[in-house]
Amino acid sequence: MAIHDHQACVAHAVAAAERVCERHGARLTELRRRVLELVWTRHQPITAYELLDLLKADHRSAAPPTVYRALEFLLEQGLIHRIEALNAFIGCPDPERLHRGGYFLICNRCRSVEEIRDNAPLREAIRTAAASRGFAASSSMIEMQGLCRECSGGGSA
Ligand SMILES: [Zn+2]
Ligand SMILES: [Zn+2]
Ligand SMILES: [Zn+2]
């Protein structure tokens, strides 16, 4: 992902999380907020064990269940997504617009993941295809793998 003001990304994510939790009547505890910030360390998926290592820097007693419970909460609130192909987690850039699942572009070289946010036509096409087979979908998730713009040399250069 191109160079940008990443502090602003993290601040935006935390502010959005506070609004989402308040609306849901859920409590964004200090630990849950910290795990969310750590998921947002970079625009790349991060595994539970990488999170645990980072969390231990300021929560020395943190254990795997600590991280899993926080991740479970963040997933439930729609603040992060799980990337199944990588068994890792990524922050949602648009958690205030409720969506289950998501559509992701995964770069095999730099491991960046981009969520396709304007996905209404995609969602509708998949819903229609599922419904025509009598399938009642509760969520949908697409993970496309390939090379991002920077890695495929198609950048602004
Ligand atoms: Zn950023
Ligand atoms: Zn999302
Ligand atoms: Zn890339």
Detail the topology: elements first, then pairings.
Layout lengths: L5 H19 L5 H10 L8 H8 L8 H13 L3 E4 L4 E4 L9 E7 L5 E3 L4 H12 L8 E7 L11
Parallel strand pairs: 3-5
Antiparallel strand pairs: 1-2, 3-4
Helix pairs in contact: 2-4, 3-4
Question: What report would you give on this structure?
Answer:
With 157 residues, this protein is of the alpha+beta class. It has one domain (6-146): Winged helix-like DNA-binding domain superfamily/Winged helix DNA-binding domain (Arc Repressor Mutant, subunit A), CATH 1.10.10.10. 39% of the residues lie in helices and 16% in strands. The chain has a 3-stranded mixed beta sheet, with no helix packed on it. It has a two-stranded antiparallel sheet with strand order 1-2. Helix 2 crosses helix 4. The longest helix has 19 residues, at 6-24. One zinc ion binds at residues 107, 109-110, 112, 147-148, 150-151.
